[in-house]
Amino acid sequence: xxxxxxxxxxxxxxxxxxxxxxxxxxxxxxxxxxxxxxxxxxxxxxxxxxxxxxxxxxxxxxxxxxxxxxxxxxxxxxxxxxxxxxxxxxxxxxxxxxxxxxxxxxxxxxxxxxxxxxxxxxxxxxxxxxxxxxxxxxxxxxxxxxxxxxxxxxxxxxxxxxxxxxxxxxxxxxxxxxxxxxxxxxxxxxxxxxxxxxxxxxxxxxxxxxxxxxxxxxxxxxxxxxxxxxxxxxxxxxxxxxxxxxxxxxxxxxxxxxxxxxxxxxxxxxxxxxxxxxxxxxxxxxxxxxxxxxxxxxxxxxxxxxxxxx
Length: 310
Hints:
Helix content: 40-55%
Oligomer: single chain
Order of helices and strands: HHHHEEHEHHEHEEEHEHEHEEH
Largest sheet: 7 strands, mixed
Number of domains: 3
CATH superfamily of the largest domain: Periplasmic binding protein-like II
């Protein structure tokens, strides 16, 4: 857009792109009729526009003699500027068209670390395969931090966990999915609340278990702690303060158990035992958020569509 602004400032307000096109065509052909054919306009219309351009600039651009059209000093001075303006306009048009056709541009997407691990890899791969020219800028953070990033214009979209820590009418949220939480432990450890043959775990079974816990501000931490307190006990932390990869690594090492999203557990690979929570279990609601007062860019809207249709 800066280039478009510079183009607009390059010549006087009354001069039109079309007039410059006609002027360059006459300057290059040195013939009004051939110039009219070149730009696909009737010769009288072309002549009228050239005269209007000369009136606007306050100077004759051509010396008109029978069978001989030459540039005046004013015309010679205008010609390189007109060519540059037309070339810049053509370049700007192509850049805007490429962006509109999703051949270039960027998407700034925020997501919680668990969603970066569980949901996003497959969707972003599909988006990149379809639009390889679009740069994907990903910011990991808790829902509170992502909401602030949206508010200050640092993000186009964000995947957040509902309910938001601070609901805001300035944000539009669309529910994307509801995801079950599961308990992960090392294969050598006993399943909480019983032997290795247990198929489900109750939240109450986590009482007395050593938990590997996420850092403060992590949505999963708040949800797990609240669920334990609802069952009448305070969770016991073996280690706390990690991000998703660290938590999974600590569980594999046998430091304790953790409550994580099902999609994360499914992608975590070997070294973990996954046990569902008994009904009613625990779940979280994932939503796609953007500012209400500003429409996301075209590329972001396309990523939004792919996420909603996944």
